[in-house]
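Lab notes, practical 5.
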Amino acid sequence: MSMSDALPVSATSGWRDYYEMCKPRVVLLMLLCTLVGMFLATSSFVALDLIAYCLVGVALVAGSAAALNHLIDASVDQKMARTENRPVAQGRVSTRQGLVFVFVTGSIGLLILAVFVNVLTAWLNFFAWLGYGVIYSLYLKRATSQNIVIGGLFGAAPPLFGWTAVTNSIDGGGLLLVLIIFAWTPPHFWALAIDRLSDYEKVDIPMLPITHGVAYTKLHIVLYTIILIVVSVLPYVTGMSNLLYLISALALGAGFLYWSLVLLFDKNPNAALETFKYSIVYLAALFGGLLLDHYLMPIDYA
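Output from the prediction step:
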C-alpha cells in the first residue's frame, strides 16, 4: 500500500501547508543553534553573506527532512490529536506534491551550502537529512523505545553545521555543542510523549512511556536532565566559555531539574507539558547565554 492510499482527498494545497510541513518552529530553534555555532567558531565577527547562505541552506534542508517525515507519518498522524490536521494527513498535500517539495527544497539547500558555504557543511547536512528523514522516520521510530536517544544525534547537529561553515573542519568545540543537544533531546521529547500518552497508545510506535511505563520514563527524564546539566557546564570546564555562561547553564539547568522533579513526584497534573515547554526555552536561552558570554566575556587565548 502506498503512503497515499489511506489518506483523505481534500482541497488544493496552499503555501501555508508547505510551510507547516517544514516544522518552522523546530527549524527556527535549529537555526539559532546553527548561528551560535558559527559565532563560537571564531573570535571575530562572521561575514553577513556567510551567515545568510548558511542559515538559508540549513533551513531548506531541515525543512525538506521535516516534510519527508510528514509524508512517512501521514497515516499515523491521522490517528493522533496533536497531528491529525497536518497537511498530508488531511490530504491537502498529496504524496506526489510532497515528494517534489522534499526534493526541490533539499536539493536547493544542499546546493547553496556546497557552493556558497563549503562542501563539508553540505555533506553534514545531507547525512543529517538522511538520518532524520529516512533512518529515524522509517526505521528507528518504529523499531526501538530508544528511538529518541539514537535518533537524537541527527537532530543535534545544527551547531556543528555553523561551526564547520566558518572553520571548514570538525573540531572539539563544535562536537561539544552537539553533545549538549544530544543530551537535551530525550528529556525534551519524553515529556511531550507523556503529555500525549493517549495519542501514542493509538499507534504502533514504541515510545518509552508505552513500552516501559510512565513512571519509568519520568525517572529517566530526571536522570537525563542531570546528565544534561553536567554536559552543559563542559564549555566552561574546557575553557570554551567564561563565567557568564556557567552561571546561565547552572541556573537554566536548575529550572529544568525542578520541572523534571515536579513531573516525577506528580506535583502538577500539567507538569509533562510544562516540562516540555520549559525545555524549549532552556535550549534557546542556553545557546543565547553561550553567544553573550562569547562576546561579553571573551576567552583570552594568549
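Observations recorded by the TA: The first helix runs from residue 15 to 21. The chain has a mean pLDDT of 91.
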